[in-house]
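Internal ticket #5521
Category: modeling
Description: The requester needs a full-assembly model to guide mutagenesis choices. All entity lines are attached below as received. Residue total reported by intake: 744.
Assigned to: D.W.
Attached entities:
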Amino acid sequence: MAEEQKKRKKRKTATKAAASIGPMVKESITSTIRAREEGKQKIAYTFIVCQHDEILRAMDIVPVWTENYSGICGAKRDAERFLQRAESLGFSRSLCTYALCGLGFDQWREELGEMPPDAPWGGQVRPDFMISSGQILCDPRSKWYQAAQQFMPDVPIYNIDLPYPLFDPKRDHREVWGYYHRYIVKELRGLVSFLEEQTGKKMDYDRLRELVDLGDRTWNLIHETYELRRAVPCPMGTGDAMNTMVPMCFMMGTQEAYDFYLDLNKELKEKIARGEGEVEEEKYRLLWGGGLPAWYALNDFNYFNSKGASFPAETTYRMVVPLYEMDIPETNDPIEHLAWRWLGYWTFWYEKARKRPGSEPDVERLIQYIEDYKIDGVVMHEAFSCRTWHVGLIWQLHQLAKIYKPIPVLVLGKEGKKEKKQRELPSLVLESDIIDITSYSEVDTRNKIDAFIETLESLRRARAA
Amino acid sequence: MEYYAGIDIGSTMTKAVILAEEIVASVIGPTGPEHRRLANKVMEEALRRAGLALESITYIISTGYGRINVPFADKQVTEISCHARGVGSLFPQARTVIDIGGQDSKAITIDANGRPTNFIMNDKCAAGSGRFIEVIADSLGVKLEEMGDISLRSTHPAKISNICTIWAQQEVAARLAEGVPVPDLVAGIHEALADRVARMAKRLKVEKEVVLTGGGAKNKGLLKALSEQLGCEILVPPEPLITGALGAALLGKDIVQKALKSGKRPETKKRTLEEAKLH
Ligand code: SF4
């Protein structure tokens, strides 16, 4: 295993910013190990996309993003031994493999009383407490830590429930979101009390307000920076974005995250000024239309690139829209603001979807990107073990096919005139998993990619003719 | 006279087609573990049948899973484009191609020019491919070629609930022990495979006419079950195994003609039948 790791070449990225992520992630893991040794700060297991980042930072908690660590094991092609261990404990392979990997790792560490041998990047430290988050569809977010408590019975769990109104084409979600808001605020305040109890410190609300403000500015900066990728040729693709998601998901509410995107913004602007694209000769612009990536196979993005295909946009790990475009009430209370940010994030596409009969928020988002980023084809990845992000992908493609048909359609042109346009949009569905490498075949995947590129090429030629 | 060749190295069968205005020769042989060598053999046989020497072939395209193992091919193209082109030439009215091969199955939507507009592949699991029928035929002691006819004798197709090939095999054994007649079991197996393939195809928009290719198209029972699942008639080419190789040869012809129009000759490889090296 170790040999194979050494032999694998470092993946080529289009931006310096993306290339700088590896050491950054390594340092974030090492810093948790340091914190454990020093014993000054409390350490929490927790999940990304829960709007509690700033709360944790304001209380000086060291977050251990357990999905991230499993992802690292996957990217280093070293998840299998932890997955197998979890299986031998009776957990099924069809559960979320992030959770399986984490559970296998934790059980091993607890059994040994030290890190498992050759643990990737030093290992995942034992937490002081675990913050789970009940979220629509994702059961591991509440069940994972309960299962982990079997091996760490002394480590308490605090669960925050974070619902949002489901989409109803006949109802304006704002009729009910006040109720949801009150509920989420209660949940977050409950979290603050739990953390105060655990740390013996009081929350400093001025600091929290500052960090939430920093988080908001980072949020908007990420959006503005990613929007630069509309440029033709596209200066940075999804392959890089799977690196640049790190500060967004694991470091929100830190100056480091803000500075990272400031640098990325500058770098992209420079690349655009030089006319430098992610690929030398951009032929096809693709949308990563859904799905977490196969972390052990990020090289597939380079394979796409080698065929002249660039990915200017993805729906995975993105801020949706800047906060100033969200129709959420203003408040001076940082906790209330975090709850609104959560609701704004999940419901932003509802209104658009209501206006198009038969549509759905996720489909509206795809349409917006397809138009804004001049997309030629959509690629999705069905990772079998994570239902949360993957349910409904095929249905979304079906809905898209109703709009982007393989026949000429009339669309409103620039001067309000109707124009005939060919708008078919080929799609490719890759199938494997986030970290379970046994579900992946490089030969089959690349064969599919080749066929997809040929399909795009034949359409390009047909259009040119 | 210009000649074009297409060679399709699939997971179980290798096919070659030599084409001028029409097909002048075609060969089908098993792929086997020696497929790096077989490309040569099949090509030699096709040339023999056509009465041609390798040097007289203007352009050669290889396709299928083993396409990179054909050192004498001028270009490699995936089976998606080749099937689309091959079927498009035989059935200009075709809009959907379903291919059921030995180890995978795929559905392709095509336009009026035989160009693929979208596709989907099942390559993960034997249950979606001809291998499914093969395994069951084996365990029933029935010849693979007879499976289709046997299934047509069924009066009450058995419901096979397991979609995993191995479990389906066990289920068949259990139902056999219960006394379920063989034709009903075989029909049930065909329905299970047709259901899986239809579900995959429906991920795309299945539009008429629908054409079935690959080994699966030779099985009447499967054809019937699939046409019931899709609710439409399904067309089958005269030799459904060679549409990929035919499409490859046609794509070669397209390339040459385009090049000639612009006053150039396309670049081609040295015309020798060398074996692919294991790297
Ligand atoms: S199911 Fe998906 S969202 Fe939930 S923990 Fe696993 S990977 Fe994360």
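Resolution: model delivered.
Comment from assignee: The radius of gyration of chain A is 22 Å.
Ticket closed.
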